[in-house]
Amino acid sequence: MASRAALHERIVAAEGLRAVEVGIDLRRLNEPDSPVFNRAENTAPFFGAVGAVFAALYLGGWVWALAVAGTALILMATGLQYLLMLRLRRRALAYALSNLERWQRLWDMGGLTLRLPSRNDTLTDSPDGDWAGFVARHLGRQR
């Protein structure tokens, strides 16, 4: 059987060709103990909203502050959360595919899944699933 480093290289190559889907568990990886967690990115929308509310209160009164607060809540619950998770997904995928040790760290945290694009029966979840066995069975030898 190929070494784990070679198997990781197969995942990187297959993901680049879209022959395998690497799933990211955003909830598990958006925690302070995760290597891809970014505290500033998670807190900036809140502090920006609080600053905007205080500015509106100072400049326009409580009616404007209430309007800004409502708008900020809606934005934070919808669009900003989506953008945050999109950035986290990109960062986690780049981190996992960069080298074997990082891949294994995210796998051990339960933050990754593997599956073939059009086959739901091939799903392998971390941390209990065998990613090396998945690669050996489904990705074969890369040329």
Quick summary of this structure?
The protein is mostly helical and 143 residues long. The chain is 65% helix and 11% strand.
- Count of runs of 4 or more consecutive helical residues: 7
Shape: elongated
Task: Give the spatial strand order of the biggest sheet.
Answer: 1-2-3
How are helices and strands ordered from N to C?
HEHHHHHEEH
Quickly give the structural class. mainly alpha
Poorly predicted regions are none
Major sheet description: 3 strands, antiparallel
Which secondary structure elements does this structure contain, and how are they paired or packed?
Layout: H1 4-16, E1 21-24, H2 26-29, H3 39-60, H4 62-77, H5 79-98, H6 100-109, E2 112-116, E3 119-125, H7 131-138
Antiparallel strand pairs: 1-2, 2-3
Helix pairs in contact: 3-4, 4-5, 5-6
Can you give a write-up of this model?
The protein is mostly helical and 143 residues long. It has one domain. Helices cover 65% and strands 11% of the residues. It has helices spanning 4-16, 26-29, 39-60, 62-77, 79-98, 100-109, 131-138; strands spanning 21-24, 112-116, 119-125. Strands 1-2-3 form a three-stranded antiparallel β-sheet. β2 and β3 (119-125) form a beta hairpin. α4 runs parallel beside α5 (79-98) and α5 packs across α6. The two termini are 16 Å apart. The mean pLDDT is 92.
